[in-house]
């Protein structure tokens, strides 16, 4: 058997993932009510069956206007919590850790599903008035967002706390705060979208205030034995925007506030971004943040090959890898990767008879 590092357990606080492969959060655009449906059980459940260490839900909205599309999962009501509970239970029964991503879309909300064009939905057409730090739209053709008042900003972190409490009650063991991809918390971080002149805008300290408040408040409400991740866009890929230096600095602060890992993504804030997309193109952010801030990191973005994932973890560039599209192509990616790396991994007993027999 090989000495794969990818297929060693990963313990954070009181929770242990059986290996270091993660199903990255992926919107399914499949529930007009925000309630988890059979689709979500089958989609997430089959990836737990497939051997992943942690299975994350899609971005679950903490308020109705925090949805990205009109068909996103929600976790702003007890009914939504109760619909998610059997999914968390099923994921755990398969030996995976159940994770949930909590999100507020801000100015990038009120959209249609990508397969219906992904355009802006007006209020009355299943859409809503979007909110943001400042009245600067993401797309020039979209309506101006409403700039949040100080009272409304307090409502945002309160909504994250209530969502985290529901996530705990639903049986999730890891929570990830979505502060990436140009959604509300990222909109506060970046000087390109945050033009406020109060204590939430201007300096690094002010722009990071809401992200810090959310992490601090969720950490207090989320059980001490359960890990908390934060997904950051480590750069906007635009001059004058949020960048890697600021991400390192923020990661240090978030570690101090009790975050356990930074999920290192990038982009999504400004349409002028120029992203050098290629295999593992965001891994250097995970490596740098891990090295300079001392927090554990997750690498994500065009990680598709077993050897590639193994190398990222074994070299110490990241503590774990998250895969998105490759998990859509192959729900059993960890079972197949373990075979390729000659790492022992349990197959679901129901599938044992299909397990490839090693060639002598
Ligand atoms: C269909 C789809 C939906 C996504 N939804 C989310 C989401 O809800 N939250 C999030 O943080 N990222 C989301 N992403 C981004 C992925 O989590 C991931 O960061 C990105 O696809 C890069 O990884 P990959 O190259 O392995 O696909 C989504 C990606 C896809 C393809």
How would you characterize the overall build of this protein?
The chain has 360 residues and is α/β, with parallel strands linked by helices. The protein has one domain: TIM Barrel (Alpha-Beta Barrel), CATH 3.20.20.70. Helix content is 33%, strand content 15%. It has eleven helices and twelve strands. It has an eight-stranded parallel barrel with strand order 3-4-5-8-9-10-11-12, surrounded by seven helices. Helix 1 (38-49) packs parallel to helix 2, helix 3 (150-170) packs parallel to helix 6 (209-221) and helix 7 (244-256) packs across helix 8. The longest helix has 21 residues, at 150-170. The model has no long low-confidence stretch (mean pLDDT 97). Bound molecules: flavin mononucleotide. Flavin mononucleotide is lined by residues 24-27, 58-59, 101, 178, 180-181, 231, 265, 300-303, 323-326.
Could you give a short description of this structure?
With 360 residues, the chain is of the alpha/beta class. 33% of the residues lie in helices and 15% in strands. Strands 3-4-5-8-9-10-11-12 form an eight-stranded parallel β-barrel, surrounded by seven helices. Strands 1-2 form a two-stranded antiparallel ribbon.
Ranges where pLDDT stays below 50 over 5 or more residues in a row are none
Estimated radius of gyration: 20 Å
Number of helices: 11
SS-derived structural category: alpha/beta
- Strand ordering within the main sheet: 3-4-5-8-9-10-11-12
Instruction: Tell me what portion of residues adopts beta-strand conformation.
Output: 15-25%
Q: Helix coverage percent of residues?
A: 25-40%
Q: What hetero molecules are bound to the protein chains?
A: flavin mononucleotide
> What is the average of the pLDDT values?
97
Reported CATH architecture: Alpha-Beta Barrel
The tally of domains stands at 1
State the assembly state of the protein chains. Answer: single chain
Give a count of the beta strands, DSSP E runs of length 2 or more: 12
Biggest beta sheet summary: 8 strands, parallel, barrel
Separation of the first and last Cα atoms: 13 Å
